[in-house]
Design a protein that fits this description.
By secondary structure, the chain is of the alpha+beta class. Helices cover about 25% and strands about 25% of the residues. It starts with 20 loop residues before the first helix and ends in a 10-residue tail after the last strand.
C-alpha cells in the first residue's frame, strides 16, 4: 500500500488542472473560460462565473499557455477577493488586438 500524495500526470502541454485551483473551481461550478479570439480582442483570455465575466485579460501572441492560465487563475482569485472584475480590455489606450 503506497503512502504519500498521489502522483499527478500532466495533460498535453504540461498543464495540470490543480495547478490552477481558481480556474478548476470556476469550471466545476457554473463558469467557464475562453482563450483565443473573442472579438474584438484577438489574444483574449476570459473567465466567466455563470453570471458575469470576472476576468478579461489580453496576452502576447507568443505567451505560453501555461503563463496565460497562471495569470487567469490569479485574476480570478483577485476578482473573487475584491469583488471587482479584472479588466485588461477596457484600459485607456488599449488596442483591440
Amino acid at each position: 500500500m503506497a503512502s504519500g500524495p498521489a502522483k499527478r500526470s500532466a495533460a498535453k502541454g504540461g498543464v495540470i488542472a490543480s495547478d490552477h485551483p481558481h480556474i478548476e473551481a470556476l469550471v466545476n461550478g457554473d463558469g467557464h473560460i475562453m482563450i483565443g479570439v473573442i472579438k474584438p480582442v484577438r489574444n483574449a483570455a476570459v473567465a466567466y462565473d455563470g453570471r458575469q465575466a470576472v476576468a478579461m485579460l489580453r496576452y502576447r501572441a507568443n505567451e505560453p499557455l501555461t503563463s496565460i492560465l497562471k495569470r487567469l487563475d490569479a485574476a480570478i482569485a483577485i476578482a473573487q477577493t475584491s469583488g471587482e472584475r479584472v479588466d485588461e480590455w477596457n484600459q485607456p489606450g488599449a488596442k483591440q488586438t
